[in-house]
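Incident review: delayed structure delivery

Summary: a single-chain prediction request sat in the queue longer than the usual turnaround. Root cause was a stuck worker, restarted by the on-call engineer. No data loss occurred. The affected request and its eventual output are reproduced below so the record is complete for anyone auditing the incident later.

Affected input:
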Amino acid sequence: MAPDTPDRRLAPEPRGGGPRRLPANGQVLTVLTCVAVLLSLLAGGCAEAPAEPPPHIVLVVCDTLRADHLDLYGYERNTAPKLSAWARDALVFERATAPCNWTRPSMLSLFSGRHPDADLVLGRNDVFPTDVPSLAELLREAGYETVAITANPYMVPMLEADRGFDSFTPLGFQSDQLTGHQGTRIASPFVMDRVDYLLSSRRPGDKPLFLYVHFMDSHMPYDPPDEFRTWVASDYDGPASWTVADYRVLRGPQVDEELQPDDRDHVIALYDGEILQLDESMARLRRMVDEYLGDRRVVSIVTSDHGEAFGEGRDNHYLHGHGLGPELTQVPLVIGGLGRSGRLDTRVGLVDLLPTLAELARAPVPDDIDGVSLIEPRPGRSYVTYRALKPADEQPLEALPDNVQHRAVGELGIVRDGARLERIDGTWHLFDLATGEDLSERFPERVEALRAEAERWYDTSRRRRAGAAATDVIPLSPEYERTLEALGYTGR
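Output delivered after worker restart:
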């Protein structure tokens, strides 16, 4: 906006045809002062306000936390009342989809913004691929300090989980500490002690912080401290401690046939107690964020890599790593610090976090990703849920009506809105996510539409992997093997 010139705005127009009389010197100075003040005010009014600095970003991943075991999502037990209170000022996504039923593929999708790879089998000792986008790398290149503290034994530097992080603290691989509740070695209070040390010793500077914290409390073996065993029945007479050895009965199909009366209720009560402890630790984290990161806005994300089953699926599986039902693939997602609050029922996915956080950080968003920013969620999108298996790990498939089955080996589902198309024994089935009802015969057009989505996913996946280097396989130490065994990862 260009201001009017002083002679037009302040000098009086001469009257008649006579000459204009000049003002006295004092009057000249007064006029010039007024002109200067006006010009200053006008310039200030037209200048843009200083841009808000990029926010701190705190990403909290609660391993194995299913959404429907939180009171925030309608659970009858108040397992996370402090999370619910905080979420009143945040955005709660009611239908968030995890891309896989166990940690490694889900976390790869979260950090890359891509659906799982059709041909990438991530076993226990397969290194994460390094030719995919990395959220931490994007944020570091945008000027962020990138820091991780993780209790999951698969999120470790030797498996390339630390790509893009300036500092990466893995806590979850000391097998000699994994007794009781992992000897408190990877329980959330221990993790929070490390976060406290990090934040309290961090020097405030010009760089925003990206902090990734990965908790393991809600992962088996469930063994919460006594003060969190709120729902454990006092007259339960099954296995007293439910140690790692006791949890082996929960592996495999048709688990309920092996359980004694009240075992299932007891296991769920222990799981819910772990969430209660987790809620306390997350509240402690929020207090630390308020204390140490008050120099700018903070965007906080709470989510999970996958859920946990307690016999709901068609094969009566417990734990995770088998099946694609909502007990495993519908996870909590709460984002605070966006200046908005409320509940959104638009279907979203963990793959959407990379473009969302990159946009907030003013980092470039990679072109070849599957996620979209959640700043303005887009309804009607489809999300892939997939766990790749080696061909030898799956029974031979029957001849199928389309060719996707002959190529992508593994558990495959396509989720859109409130339904999931899943491939079972060589046949596509459309399920209502809320009721589990098979809708295939009633909605054949939806089956065909989602099958086409599966084809597009497969073609995109193969294009991306064309020419990509094979992932490295590293030897695992006996100690690391014992750690995985203690957490029930045998056979992954």
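Verification: The radius of gyration is 28 Å.
Action items: add queue-age alerting; document worker restart procedure.
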